[in-house]
Amino acid sequence: MPRSVNSVASRARRKKILKLAKGYFGRRKNVWTVAKNAVEKALLYAYRDRKTRKRNFRKLWIQRINAAARLHGMSYSVFMDKIHKNNIQLNRKVLADLAMNHPEAFKAVVESVK
Questions:
Q1: What's the CA gap between 75 and 33, in Å, rounded?
Q2: What is the CATH number of the domain that holds 44?
Q3: 3-state class of 87 per DSSP?
Q4: Cβ atoms < 10 Å from Cβ of 98
Q5: Domain tally, the chain
Q6: 1 within domain boundaries
């Protein structure tokens, strides 16, 4: 029995990878083996960095809350402790947004926990 090669599926697989490599520089965009390696690496970075983005935003929110709380004579850790003890249900994302864009509202929150 002759060997059967499913060239339709093989071609589709290669086209899918080369489509993902669109916009890459040099041989990374049009040479199959180079493009395959580049796309695999890019997908690994994308997966990893979806997790990292969450960490980075939390760090940013904490820095913003800390800076705003210190303007009102309180450190971040003391402020967050009082937030939790007073049972105020505002997360770090919202607090950071208040600190940046609505300082008077943030001041009201600080006054309510003092």
A1: 54
A2: 1.10.1900.20
A3: coil
A4: 21
A5: 1
A6: no
Predicted TM-score (pTM) of this structure? 0.77
Task: Tell me which residue has tokens 């929110």.
Answer: 61
Report yes or no on 2 lying in a domain.
no
Burial state string for 24-51 with b = 16 or more CB within 10 A and e = fewer than 16: beeebeeeeeebbebbeeeeeeeeeeee
Residue 110 and residue 73 in contact, taking contact as beta carbons nearer than 8 Å: no
* DSSP result, 9-58: HHHHHHHHHHHHTTT--GGGGT-HHHHHHHHHHHHHHHHHHHHHHHHHHH
pLDDT digits (tens, 9 = 90+) for 35-53: 999 999 999 999 999 999 9
- List, for residues 10-23, the tens digit of each pLDDT value: 999 999 999 999 99
Q: Where are the beta strands (DSSP E) in the chain?
A: none
